[in-house]
Amino acid sequence: MKKDDFLQMMWQDNETESEPNKTLYADVIECMDIALSQSPDTYEVPENKTVKEAYALIEKRGKESKARCVGPFEAAEILAEYLGTKYVRPSRKLQTAVQKAKINLEDFL
After folding, report:
1. 48-88 tens-digit pLDDT
2. Cα–Cα 20 to 30 A to 11, which of 37, 52, 61, 100?
3. Closest CA to 34 of 99, 94, 79
4. Contact present, 109 and 62 (Cβ < 8 Å)
5. pTM listed for this prediction
C-alpha cells in the first residue's frame, strides 16, 4: 500500500480508539509520517503494519533506555525500520556532510 494511503488508513483506524490510546497513537502516526518522509511517494508499506505494534516498539525502546523515553527523531528511526524503509535524522545528515568536508579538505593539504 502506498505510503500516503497507509497513513490515511492509520488515521481512520485511530478514530475508533478511545483515550488515552487515541492521543498516543496519533503521535505515533505523526512519527510514522516523519519516518516515511524520506521515502518516495511510490513507497509500498507492508500491509501487516499497525500503529499498536509501532507504539509497542517505541515503548519497549524507551523502557530499555537510561532516559526511560524516546525522542521523536529516534522514534522516526525505529518506525522507519519497522516500516521497511530508512530515515536519517537531520543532525546525522549534517554530521555526515561535515565529515565528508573534512576528508575533502585533508585530501588537498
Report:
1. 999 999 999 999 999 999 999 999 999 999 999 999 999 99
2. 61
3. 79
4. no
5. 0.80
